[in-house]
Structures are given as C-alpha cells and as structure tokens.
C-alpha cells in the first residue's frame, strides 16, 4: 500500500499559514489591550486626577506591556517563568 505524503512545499505553506494566523491574532490582541489601557487612563484622568495626562500615558504603557507579554507567550512558550518543556520519550520496552 502506498502512503500519501504531502510534498515539502505544502508543509512549508501550512506552517506559514499557522504562523500568519497567530501573527494576525496577536496584532488584534495587542490593539484590544492597548485600547482598554487607553480607555482606563482616560476614565481615570477624567474622574480621579482632574484631567491630568499622565494616567493616560501610564495605562497605555501598561496595555502595551501586557499585550507584548501575551504575544511573547504565544510565540515563545519557554519565556514563561517556571515553564519547562518536556520531551516525549517513547519507551515501549515490553
């Protein structure tokens, strides 16, 4: 029986499509978290800090930092503190 294998070019395109999907997802996540940080800063500036501009800058910076950390977790899971990568070892000695 013959086993149908994908040509290497299809594997490369599949990997690029997966990476492209995660890249788009991360940009959307970055934009959402940045907007949340910005809106929290605007509300805090208007209600608590008598229309000062520094709460907007700080909360937007926090939003950028959080979104960057989430994207880094997606593309590099070893960057998470305390994370260990365990390799599967197939010990089938019976």
Automatic annotation (TrEMBL):
The keyword Mitochondrion is annotated on this UniProt entry: yes
Chief place where the protein resides? mitochondrion
The residue ranges crossing the membrane are 27-49
Query: Entry's Pfam families?
Result: DUF543
InterPro entries for the chain: Mic10 (IPR007512)
Q: Where in the cell is it found?
A: Mitochondrion inner membrane
Q: Which UniProt keywords apply?
A: Membrane, Mitochondrion, Mitochondrion inner membrane, Transmembrane, Transmembrane helix
Q: What is the recorded membrane topology of this protein? A: Single-pass membrane protein
What's any one GO cellular component for it?
A: MICOS complex
UniProt family annotation: Belongs to the MICOS complex subunit Mic10 family.
PANTHER family tied to this protein: MICOS COMPLEX SUBUNIT MIC10
Q: What does this protein do?
A: Component of the MICOS complex, a large protein complex of the mitochondrial inner membrane that plays crucial roles in the maintenance of crista junctions, inner membrane architecture, and formation of contact sites to the outer membrane.
Q: How does it assemble?
A: Component of the mitochondrial contact site and cristae organizing system (MICOS) complex.
What protein name does the entry list? MICOS complex subunit MIC10
Q: Which organism is it from?
A: Cetraspora pellucida
Q: What is the lineage of its organism?
A: Eukaryota, Fungi, Fungi incertae sedis, Mucoromycota, Glomeromycotina
């Amino acid at each position: 029986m013959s086993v149908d294998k994908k040509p290497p070019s299809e594997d490369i395109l599949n990997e690029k499509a997966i990476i492209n999907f995660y890249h788009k997802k991360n940009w959307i996540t970055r934009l959402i978290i940045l907007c949340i940080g910005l809106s929290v800063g605007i509300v805090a500036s208007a209600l608590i800090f008598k229309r000062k501009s520094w709460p907007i800058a700080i909360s937007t910076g926090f939003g950028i930092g959080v979104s960057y950390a989430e994207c880094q977790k997606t593309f590099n899971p070893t960057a998470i503190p305390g994370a260990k990568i365990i390799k599967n070892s197939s010990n089938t000695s019976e």
